[in-house]
Write a structure and sequence with these properties.
- With 121 residues, this protein is α+β, with helices and mostly antiparallel strands.
- It has 2 helices and 6 strands.
- The chain has a single domain, classed as 3-Layer(aba) Sandwich (Aminopeptidase).
- It has a 6-stranded mixed β-sheet, with helices on one face.
- The two termini are 25 Å apart.
Length: 121
């Protein structure tokens, strides 16, 4: 929030979901062999939809926004990671054209890896 990179989806004054579209590359991403050179990509974090409203296309809307915004800002790609045990998220991103490139670890969160993905715009 402090960086001004949190965006929310609202309907009737109710927050349905949120996404962070960031310019910051976490150091954990450094070993990944990305499709595009570092320095001109956006990073998606914290994509979320209220549990009672999931399955209604809101995550698609948030990602449509994030990708369009990234394109409008002149970024060449969108990068993200998702938990290796979350097969639903992996299918979601792969169906949107993201390519799985490698794994990173957040030992404080899980012993399992997180898969890194990139979409060239």
């Amino acid at each position: 929030m402090d960086r001004g990179e949190l965006y929310v989806l609202e309907e009737n004054h109710q927050i349905i979901g949120a996404v962070v579209v960031s310019t910051w590359m976490d150091e954990e991403y450094e070993p990944i062999d990305w499709l595009t050179p570092n320095g001109n990509s956006s990073y998606i974090h914290r994509l979320c939809v209220h549990p009672n409203l999931q399955g209604k296309g809101y995550a698609q809307q948030l990602m449509d926004f994030a990708e369009s915004y990234s394109r409008e800002q002149g970024f060449v790609s969108v990068r993200l990671d998702t938990f290796s045990q979350n097969l639903r998220n992996q299918r979601f991103y792969e169906q949107r054209g993201y390519q799985k490139l490698g794994d990173i670890f957040f030992p404080k969160q899980s012993e399992h890896p997180f898969h890194c993905y990139e979409l060239v715009l």
